[in-house]
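--- STAGE predict ---
source: upstream dedup step, 1 unique chain passed
mode: sequence only
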Amino acid sequence: MIVGTAGHIDHGKTALVRALTGVDTDRLAEEKARGITIDLGFAYADLGDGSVTGFVDVPGHERLVHTMVAGAGGIDLALIVIAADDGIMPQTQEHLAILSLLGVSRAIVAISKADLADTESIAALRKDIAAALATTPLARAPILPVSVVSGQGIEALRDMLAVAAAETTARDASGEVRLIVDRSFTLEGAGTVVTGILRSGAVAAGDQLVVSPSGMPVRVRGLRAQNRRIERAEAGARVALNLAGAAKDQIRRGDMVVSPGLHAPTDRIDVALRWIDPKPLRSGLRARLHLGAAEVEARLVPLGAALTDGRELVQMVLERPLAARIGDTFILRDGSASRTLGGGRLLDLRPPARRRATPERHAALRAADIDDPTSALSALLAVTPNYVELDVFLRDRAVPSSSADAVSADASVIGPAGGRVAILPRTLDALNTAMQQTLLAHHDSNPDLQGIGHEALRLSLTPRLPKPVFDAVLRDAITAGRLVAEAGFVRLPAHAPKMSAADEGVYARIAPLLAAEQRFRPPRVRDIAGALDLPEPEIRRLMKLSARLGRVDQIAHDHFFLRETTAEMAAIIRRLSAQADDGWFTAPAFRDEVQSGRKVAIEVLDFFDRLGLTTRRGDLRQLNRHRADLF
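--- STAGE serialize ---
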């Protein structure tokens, strides 16, 4: 269990931790000289339950609230300290508000310096404390008078903490590693050490991790948890990691040490925000965001809606990227860092910068507010855009990929590795039906056209899936025989483009001119018109019609190749790319294969570049494996 102190300056938080653990958490010379806590202090003790309880001692001074927030994140229980001779002070109230906004729901209130007040004063203070806690998640917290001078209540407090430690539920260690850094320093003979509470996952010596948002890779040399050297630490423990690959000044408070797959910092976040003093939010308001142990300036943009419990939907635009997780809690303070404005929960780490306040976005954010990943995914799939990028969803919630099947059990998962989407089966069925209906309507209106282009078909459908995912859906439909794809066009199997009898007669005379030995260097429109003694515009019209019917391809202006020839040239490109050591081949190599002039060979290669069959780098080309089956 991790216990975090809270309370006004000089109310005895550090002295109480010392009485419970025997450790003085004021480690800085200035702290000892001034008698106040300036930075986070840490202590560990076995309170009698057989486990080691960690204490995070935070400053009480109003100017150090940002440090208090860094220490309060991730604690299991708050030890709220209120001096009997002072009572509830402004910083006490602010700390209580911060604990509530961060979602801390377990606490013990210690009335410190009980030896300085009489029984009646302490009874009155009990009533004041109960009233202050009544509207917070800490309303049921026990209240206990204590004195480090006389020893009053210390053993009872220790017993309470031991019971709370025994009741603390172990966090899930199966997730990805997330450790929020609150200290970074160097130890002689060891190197760089970072400390923090392990929010999720498990870490062991030898693990390869990443410091985010910088993206710097590091290796765990060794670790300590709860002040003991160990081989492996699990979520919930306070951990010190000895890291290889990073210097102390390359890691700062607020950075995260994470599993490599979680490194995806963001500078734009949609959140659910609860104000301490509700008031209309002016768009563009600047505030200080405290997230984990990080502090950064944020510009706030209201999204024009609220959740049922009154939290306002807001987009935060950050001055620099941060590592974060959906569901993390945060605190907002004013621009001068003198007053806490509110706090809340992160809902979306990849929100749009435009059309961010639509009813569809509001519905998606309400769904994203669900904590359970499986339930959240189901809710998101039921609202626009009706699909979820599954790998992004898992990463942004720190859900291990091994849990993907369980989380998406009620969905269909389609698309390439790393770019998969989850979609409800009924939505996918509706999409396939819409494809059929769209193509049928197109064929009825355009009987002479071969079909609809891949991209045009994708853009015409709802939901508008990412291109790689739509290609996977299309491949499934083609494999099942529901659709046919030819040269970048999609059609229904029963559709056969038609040409008039007169045009068929002329085409029958043209086709031989484009075939046989001259197929790789066919005559152009003007040459065909001269050979057949027909008007050049008429030949051009007929050739364009033939291209729409899929019989020929227009490689360049007035230069048409039979579809069979195009497919043959595509096969040559696949062979040339496969034979090259690195996949890249030259235009002269292709020219020699088709035995045509350099100009025609370049025109053909440019045609394939436009279609995406090849990618170009200077004078070299390579087969695009994603479009390798185009012909």
